[in-house]
Design brief:
Blueprint: E1 13-15, H1 23-33, E2 37-39, H2 49-61, E3 71-76, H3 94-109, E4 114-119, H4 130-144, E5 148-154, H5 158-166, E6 174-178, H6 187-195, E7 199-203, H7 210-213, H8 216-225, H9 229-239, E8 243-246, H10 251-260, H11 264-269, H12 272-279
Parallel strand pairs: 1-2, 1-8, 2-3, 3-4, 4-5, 5-6, 6-7, 7-8
The structure holds NADP nicotinamide-adenine-dinucleotide phosphate (NAP).
Length: 283
């Protein structure tokens, strides 16, 4: 039975949002370039999960990877985050919606378990609700039934996490958040994650931080390390303990993004002082 113990965590996640008809080809390309972690969601409005499944099937057929080589992550999304293409009966109880959404994800992905199952976002931006607890309990049951190895939450504030803790709910293994440099790269949430041994997954590291990419500090480090500013940000994210996501549509950028986490020049130039300076560059 799948379990947390034999979870192999990749160093980078390839994000499959907003790729529509190109989802399968781009995901397969990402696997060919070397990504082993794939992030998707059963939210047809922004993701084409069945396209990810097509890419996986093609990659298995051509022998690039086996299921065991991969870390597959998908999400449960409340109805308000969906369009009309729902992966569950909207009249069913929330717990039942979780069961239906998971069954549909497994079918899309052609697998009998996902490595990580994530609550796409709590029902309210202002705090953890009873609905969230019902959904979370249902996700715990999916995990206990072996359909997910571990659980995560996304788009959460420090308050959400503190409330989960206060309610004695099982804490997530992952938090996946949009990471703004102006908020100290989500300093508060990352602090909670560090204290509770939760792995922080950062998305929009480039798109939410365009000003930072143009900052002379980043430019200087990039030049010294013979890297690009984008690679500096990904390498920095790893140095502060994040698991970064990229959804690049370019094969060249896929390669650059992967290489940034194992880049001798960046490793040398990103000293603890340089990492601290980037961490407090904008907030
Ligand atoms: N939980 C959530 O609510 C949520 C929300 C948003 C995203 N996500 C996840 O996170 C994934 C990533 O999304 P994202 O918001 O981080 O943005 P993204 O959609 O991956 O966009 C990244 C941008 O950076 C560029 N880029 C990437 N690597 C580059 C490089 N080496 N050099 C130059 N440009 C580079 C890409 O351009 P090119 O295509 O030209 O390379 C693209 O414009 C999504 O696919 C999804 O899986 C989750």
């Amino acid at each position: 039975m799948p379990s947390k113990q034999n979870l192999s965590l990749p160093s980078f996640l390839y994000g499959t949002a907003w790729k529509e008809g190109h989802t399968a080809a781009l995901t397969e390309q990402a696997l060919r370039v070397g990504f082993r972690g794939i992030d998707t969601a059963n939210q047809r409005k922004h993701y084409f999960e069945a396209g990810v499944g097509e890419a996986l099937a093609a990659a298995y057929r051509s022998g690039i990877v086996t299921r065991a080589d991969l870390f597959l992550q998908t999400k449960f999304t409340y109805q308000r985050g969906q369009d009309h293409r729902l992966p569950y009966d909207p009249k069913a109880k929330l717990s039942e919606q979780v069961t239906q959404s998971m069954a549909s994800s497994l079918e899309h992905l052609g697998t009998d378990y996902v490595d990580s199952y994530v609550l796409h976002g709590p029902s309210s931006g202002y705090g953890w609700t009873k609905d969230d607890s019902e959904v979370w309990e249902a996700m715990v049951q999916e995990r206990d039934a072996g359909r997910a190895r571990v659980l995560g939450v996304s788009n959460v504030s420090l308050l959400h996490l503190q409330q989960m803790e206060a309610l004695h709910l099982e804490l997530p293994v992952f938090v996946q958040n949009r990471c703004f440099a102006v908020q100290g790269w989500d300093r508060d949430v990352r602090g909670f994650c560090r204290e509770h041994k939760i792995t922080y997954q950062g998305f929009s590291l480039l798109t939410a931080n365009v000003e930072v990419l143009r900052h002379p500090l980043i430019g200087g480090i990039a030049m010294q390390a013979s890297a690009t500013p984008m690679q500096v940000i990904f390498a920095f994210s790893q140095k502060v303990g994040m698991l970064p996501l990229t959804g690049t549509t370019s094969a060249e950028h896929m390669h650059q993004d992967l290489v940034s986490l194992n880049h001798a020049g960046l490793d040398q130039v990103l000293t603890p002082n340089a990492v601290d300076a980037i961490e407090s560059l904008a907030g």
